[in-house]
Amino acid sequence: MSHEALNPIHPSVLPKLDPAFVQLYNEHVANTPAGPIDLAVLRTKYSVLYSYGTGPAPDCGRVYDAEVPGHNGDMIPVRVYEPASPGPWPVHIDFHGGGWGLGDLDTESHICKHICVRADVCVIDVDYRLVPEHAFPIGIQDSFAALQYIHAKGAGQFNIDPTRISLGGVSAGGHIALVCAHLARDATIPLKLVAVGTPTIDDISKYKTASESPWPSMQAMEFAPTLNWARLKWFDNLKWQSIASSGSERESQLAAVSWYANILDAPNCKDLPTTVIYTAGCDPLHDEGEAYAQKLISNGNEVIQKRFVGVPHPFMHMDKGALLDPSSSTEYNKC
């Protein structure tokens, strides 16, 4: 399978893209030869994949690495971004994107720095374990364990205020943050806010082709740059390949997946924290992200949902120039 449709931008999508992105893409990416996906190689390059659109990040007061307990008590790395102001600080816990099988503590470092400085909060970025080496939903399990630990022990270890916690992430990381909001509610861990960008929501293993998907954006953006149907299916196959092929181990692993594969199947969508969901106009995932926002609204939650027109799936990594101009966004719902 090819890595993605690199050159040229598909004619079905080109008229819908912001010219600023088209220029960046054509200058830095469009002439890159397409080739087979190699997971090991892609992992070494993933954290700089969208650096052509990334602007400079501000300096935090301090940045350092630490560890917290993940699923089953196994220690996992985190990176801590401290403001220059004196603590204790509110804390924002970030879960990076990468389709469950990619990403590390460098992936969203510039986003974490911006949040730390602009919001004057401590940011803790969680390096959850990846598929296929570990069975899905390990990313969710590790991330929720990290949240539990930070809530219980973070005041002493990280000088944070455990009554002022927010969650966030991009793509698969957004999915993780949204699921953790449900788990935190059930565990009576108070959250002030969940803010995510271009989250994955649905379980696309149910569909063989983009045309089978119920989401119009999946068909309209089947050949979008940076994330398209073929690449989504590659990531999804990677996720399900992490599950044992047979026997009791498979049964227990599938039981652990529960409704996590499709957050629209969550059994209870009431009493969730204020949620911000950013979607991208040229992203196959934008319809399902907005459907989840509508479901939260219909269950009485406070939601801000904005679609940024003309930009692709990883636009939150692209803060150079006009790509993150708030005037280019369309706000659909605010309750």
TrEMBL record:
InterPro entries: AB_hydrolase_3 (IPR013094), AB_hydrolase_fold (IPR029058), Carboxylest/Gibb_receptor (IPR050466). Residues 94-316 form the Alpha/beta hydrolase fold-3 domain. GO terms for biological process: antibiotic biosynthetic process; monocarboxylic acid biosynthetic process. It comes from the Eukaryota. GO terms for molecular function: hydrolase activity. This is Alpha/beta hydrolase fold-3 domain-containing protein. The lineage of its organism: Eukaryota, Fungi, Dikarya, Ascomycota, Pezizomycotina.
